[in-house]
Amino acid sequence: MPLLVKICGLSTRETLDTALEAGADMVGFVFFPPSPRHLSLETARELGRQAKGRAAKVALTVDADDATLENIVETLRPDLLQLHGKETIARVRDIKATFSLPVMKVIAVETSADLAVLPGYASVADRILFDARAPRGATRPGGLGAVFDWHVLEKLDLQLPFMVSGGLSAGNVAEAVRVTCAGGVDVSSGVESAPGIKDPEMIRHFIRAARATEELMVR
Ligand SMILES: O=C(O)c1ccccc1N[C@@H]1O[C@H](COP(=O)(O)O)[C@@H](O)[C@H]1O
């Protein structure tokens, strides 16, 4: 089964090219000023042009208002909006309707109790991303390299495509896919030499490791 591989937090032409050439299905761009991966609109326009037609462009935002989303949509021309904040079900529905774009809602996971919100979000989102819940006081809700207990997703019965993220790396991605049966994986910190600094060799290594799991999976 093909596995969707998303490399997130790309911010330079060089590392974007590496991800595209290595076969990333999705490339993610972060629009959240406290993040070390935050992109200006000017850079987003340039990287958006570079990625166009080569992989799905994903705009990651955190509780963004309509004006901010509008600027991002105008400049990046994303294929998917990743909502990584505390957006309510009504807000997710509203964003989808306003921008006519598919939406991936992020569910922060620590224990199985965190999945209680899933039916509501699954009724409005196009796909779900399960990410590790950030610790209290963290400066951002993701991109921290934190792993959650993948076994929480073991008995998941979700009629929607879903991906997994949170502390993934070339070394653990196969196990994450085996346990969760996710249709996609998403990585940021695990392909960086320092926060915000993507490493080309780590990107290639991650994509190779993720692709190697495809033969093992029957989803
Ligand atoms: O990358 C960020 O800085 C970020 C900021 C705000 C919300 C989410 C962010 N990153 C996303 O979090 C997951 C997991 O990242 P990691 O692999 O554990 O570093 C992924 O989707 C990142 O793009």
Automatic annotation (TrEMBL):
Molecular function (Gene Ontology), one example: phosphoribosylanthranilate isomerase activity
Primary enzyme class: isomerase
EC number per UniProt: 5.3.1.24
Residue ranges of domain N-(5'phosphoribosyl) anthranilate isomerase (PRAI) in the record: 5-208
Lineage: superkingdom: Bacteria
Pathway: Amino-acid biosynthesis; L-tryptophan biosynthesis; L-tryptophan from chorismate: step 3/5
UniProt KW keywords: Amino-acid biosynthesis, Aromatic amino acid biosynthesis, Isomerase, Tryptophan biosynthesis
Enzymatic reactions: N-(5-phospho-beta-D-ribosyl)anthranilate = 1-(2-carboxyphenylamino)-1-deoxy-D-ribulose 5-phosphate
Keyword Mitochondrion recorded: no
Family: Belongs to the TrpF family.
Cited NCBIfam families: PRK01222.1-1
Protein name in UniProt: N-(5'-phosphoribosyl)anthranilate isomerase
Organism: Bradyrhizobium algeriense
